[in-house]
Amino acid sequence: MKPRARDLGVPFRGTPGALNAITDVRGVEVGAVTLNSEKRGAAPIHTGVTAVLPRGKANGDKPVYAGWFSQNGNGEMTGTTWIEESGELAGPILITNTHSVGVVRDATIAWYLQTYKPNTEQWWSLPVVGETWDGWLNDINGFHVKPEHVFTALNSAKPGPVAEGNVGGGTGMIAYEFKGGTGTSSRKVRDPAGEYTVGVLVQANFGRRNQLTIAGTPVGAEIPDEPAYAGRMTERSTTDVGSIIVVVAVDAPLLPHQLKRISRRVSMGIARTGGVSSDSSGDIFVAFATGNSTAADAKTLGSATTLPNDRLSPFFEATIEATEEAIINAMVAAETTNGPNGHRAIALPHDRLQQVLKKYNRLAPSK
Length: 367
Description:
The chain has helices at 80-86, 101-116, 147-155, 219-222, 256-272, 313-333, 350-359; strands spanning 29-37, 45-53, 64-73, 88-89, 93-97, 128-132, 174-175, 178-179, 181-191, 194-206, 242-250, 282-289, 337-338, 344-345. By secondary structure, it is of the alpha+beta class.
């Protein structure tokens, strides 16, 4: 089993759930399809698709309250206009590469029709599909993500541990010019009404090497070796590379405007790792809450409970902490990957990360 950031002695604030994953939020299921190929004479393929089901497959047709936020909009997340208008999310959230958004969106509709058999005379769907660009390591214009891959990701979604690094939509992604990808984390939140959980899943594909900060230490500056993109991008791109999609799950009874507030706090977790939300970055976040099980059900007279706004600060803090850790988990799990035309993204070296943390007196005892 791959080590995670905490296993290497990276200190983080807050108390994670049992799995330290978005699936610590009961009912949430995650599935992925990973596509890798480096056949001789063919362009390398390193891509995939990740699926997050807020209520799992068994209750996947039951809406949740949701909110979203774009810190910088040089990217895409379909379906967000309706989330903004209605405050509801009906169905799964998918993440893939930039040029596969269309096929993933359409295949999600087909999967939903096949799985839940809604009344097609009245039913319509605006799936939520986010993207980041993997064209440095992947043959992105080969359109290798197919409908059957989307079906497999959705059908294989399950609770439990979530694979990280070169997985699913994160397979070909780069973070801080190291290999990036998929990462997850969670935090427990204590409230007078009980204990709740905030879970985060990221697709990390952003940042410059000298920006990378881990546990307050300048890891990127201390490990300058072989940064991806170096010397090969246009002058404009040397300061503007990458995007990040973040999904936040909460099991508390929260309303859409409160979830929008939570989604805004994702930016602060990214900033703790050094991110600046550059001009070409698509930093797009969506948050949902599973705490009101029937409030958005069209078949019932909806009723909802909620926590008051003055009790949201612990949820903000949990979101920030879990986002920060999920990004570093993605990098710790990632593996060195070669792309076309000599492109390459090296993995964050674990031993050197530990050396930097030790140098700045930030290395926690390993578990």
